[in-house]
Amino acid sequence: MLKIFYPAILALGLATILFSCKDDDDKGPTEGVVTGTVLALDDARSVQGVSVSAFFADNNEPTGVSTTTNADGVYSINLMPGTYYLRLAKLGFQEVPPVGVTAIPFTIVEGETVTLDYDLVASAVIDGGAISGTVSSDSEMISGALIIATDATGSSYSAVSDAEGNYTILNVPAGTYTVQAWLSGYNGQSADGTVEANSITGDIDILMTAGVSATLDGSVKFLATGNKAVDVSLIHPSTQQVIPGLSVSTEGTFTMTDIPDGEYLARASYNNDTLVVDPDFIVKFGDPVVTVSGGAVTVTQGDATSGVLDFAVTNSVLLDNPSNTATEIVPVEVSAAGLTFTWKPYSSTSDYVVELLDINGNTIWGGFDNSGDIPVKVITTTSTSITYDGPALLNGRTYRWKVYASKDDKSNGGWSLISMSEDQMGLIKIIE
Questions:
Q1: From CA 324, how far away is CA 49, in angstroms rounded?
Q2: Residue 262 has what DSSP assignment?
Q3: How do the domains of the chain map onto residue ranges?
Q4: What CATH number was assigned to the domain covering residues 317-431?
Q5: If DSSP codes are grouped into helix, strand and coil, which group holds residue 404?
Q6: DSSP symbols for 72-104
Q7: Engineered SS bond to 171: which of 128, 312, 385, 404, CB 3.0-4.6 Å?
Q8: pLDDT tens digit sequence for 363-409
Q9: What is the pLDDT of residues 29-78, one digit of tens each?
Q10: Topology of the domain comprising 214-315
Q11: Higher model confidence: residue 285 or residue 205?
Q12: Does this UniProt record's set of keywords contain Lipid biosynthesis (predicted)?
């Protein structure tokens, strides 16, 4: 049987910005606005009370800026110029984007407004509850910490602490959980809580201790391409979310500091830099696992164990049309009629897989099946273009398309990935 290797690295990606607050005397750039309406997908009703939080698009870290939708399902957030994505959460609905799925980013331009509408899907968790509390260290409230609740089976649910150190984890099945906070420079104590159906378990407060000093050294190898800046991050193994503060940029060797005790997966190359992590590298060695205990760092890649983290990156598949440019994370406006995707040929490729995702991060056309076996919905051979023939696309909505390159590989049982397009490319907005 033909096999496709679909490593977890395909779920992540993104571009560089810096967030700051507007000065009282109006010096420096002014803010822009992201606004939109949130509806329930099943009946198109407005959804009030949806938590909407802005995250930096280069490293998945929270900005600390959030709001909730009003009675008409409308939200509005002011942000400084830069590139971001939003996370939406509401009890009874699936989080947007789902954990492990790359969010579609957007760019804020000084003085301009970006409109992003969302459709919420009912949560698969029936009669779920919630966990809430605070995160603090020495009586100081901590914002931007990643909070993860895990049950005895390893199932995990997450949230991020806000500017006042408060957090709420929604749509948690009834049961008993261990809750822990993650943030660069801090070790977090765990706390236990029991969740009942359709209720909020409060006062699950997390204490953190400053002074973490563990350091990770490593390098990035560039395959068939020149050296350029690449980002490296540590993520939580169950939720696939970046640990806030644990990201660095490198053109070869790097050092990451202030790593808390714990076990992490390592990922690289979020930015639009024409590079992606070599899929063959992950197929051979698996995702690198970084374990930190008492300041000691161990890196496991396949059967090898060391104290350093090494990556290999390769050229990405280059998208042609329609797509935003690498420097402008703004969807291009296109008509759904006759929509055709084209891309540049990739060396040594025998097949291409094409995928279209909606703004929630869900694959709506093409891509891979869950088992990783071929059949895939949309696959081409030597052609570098394909016409969309999937479900109707909604006017005014944003989508992202991707291409994966593969080759025949008898040593791997048939078929394996060799590259893919970048997650911040292929952004389109449908217009009539």
A1: 32
A2: E
A3: 9-120, 129-210, 214-315, 317-431
A4: 2.60.40.10
A5: strand
A6: TSEEEEEE-SEEEEEEEE-TTB--BSPTTSPPP
A7: 128
A8: 889 887 655 444 455 777 778 999 999 999 988 888 999 998 888 76
A9: 789 999 999 999 889 899 999 999 898 887 667 787 889 999 999 999 99
A10: Immunoglobulin-like (2.60.40)
A11: 205
A12: no
Whether 151 contacts 190, CB under 8 Å: no
Instruction: Measure the CA–CA gap between 58 and 39, rounded to whole angstroms.
Output: 28
The structure's pTM equals 0.70
> What is the pLDDT at residue 63?
83
| Domain 129-210 is found in CATH 2.60.40.10 | yes
Phi, psi of 69 (to 5 degrees): -75, 150
Rounded to the nearest angstrom, the gap between the alpha carbon of residue 103 and the centroid of all alpha carbons in its chain is 5
Specify which residues 313 forms β-bridges with.
Answer: 222, 277
- Residues 6+ positions from 88 with CB-CB distance below 8 Å: 38, 50, 51, 52, 53, 95, 96, 118, 120
Evaluate whether 9-120 and 317-431 have a shared fold.
yes
Residue 318 and residue 347: Cα distance in Å, rounded?
11
CA–CA distance, 246 with 218 (Å, rounded to integer): 14
In whole angstroms, what is the distance from residue 69 CA to residue 96 CA?
14
> What are the Cα distances from residue 52, in Å, to 91, 94, 351, 404, 407?
13, 13, 39, 31, 41
For 360, the token pair is: 């929630």
Q: Cα-flanking dihedrals φ and ψ of residue 283, to 5°? A: -60, -40
Q: Which of 327, 335, 345 is nearest to 425 (CA)?
A: 327
Number of H helices, E strands in the chain: 1, 38
The pLDDT, as a whole number, for residue 259 is 96
pLDDT of residue 122: 87
Whether 170 contacts 158, CB under 8 Å = no
Q: Which CATH architecture has domain 9-120?
A: Sandwich (2.60)
Measured CA angle at 362 (ends 360, 367), to 5 deg: 150
